[in-house]
Amino acid sequence: MTLQGRTALVTGSSKGLGRAILLRLAGQGANVVVNYSRDENAAAEVQAAAEALGVRAITVAADVSQLDGIQKVFDATIAAFGRIDIVVANAGMEKVNVAVTDVTEEDFDLLFRVNTKGPYFVLREAARRIADNGRIVTISSNTTTVPQLGVGLYGTSKVATGYLARVLALELGPRGVTVNTVVPGPIDGAGIFTDPANDEYKQSLVAMVPIGRLGTTEDVAAVVAFLTSDDAGLITGQQLVADGGMH
């Protein structure tokens, strides 16, 4: 599953799941773009880790929930590498353990800007700029398929991008571009589960997983790597669930 000579842009890739995805693609030979919004030191560390794998890497500070930030990261990618072959729309924000009755308008606007508007326009820009036979992958959440207490807002904000990916797969199919969505379950060591205060909540979710553990960032990165490979050339418009059987 070599990605030698290809260029991969992973939004929100300075830490957590995005970091794991980016380093997995780099490990398979892709030149990579580390996108971050605030943590410059973390982005620099990921860049160094990618370069240690023998590929070229750049960092781009850009808020990809805003259209100018999206434009900036795509412009920087083209300027540095001349092409984009892989786009992973990963950047997002979690908000759980909040009842529907407690959600504020500010909560709603923020989650939908980061989890819905941002990925929508990342995919729009990817559709305009990606090379023929490229790969687009969006990262969703199994809260869109498994109703749970306290995830009404978060799950709703993650639904739209998976649907958009299915439509975009139809539009880009004639160019050989595939568009798919990965739907992870809870991920140990990422997002809210980097905070020990959420350990009790984590254990309650483990009890819901048939295989008896939460996923890891590496588990999900492996799924993304498959979908961006030549081996997945016939897979498009799909939502691939990786949640240990919770769905």
Automatic annotation (TrEMBL):
Keywords: Oxidoreductase. Pfam families: adh_short_C2. PROSITE patterns: ADH_SHORT. GO terms for molecular function: oxidoreductase activity. SUPFAM superfamilies: NAD(P)-binding Rossmann-fold domains (SSF51735). Belongs to the short-chain dehydrogenases/reductases (SDR) family. This is SDR family oxidoreductase.
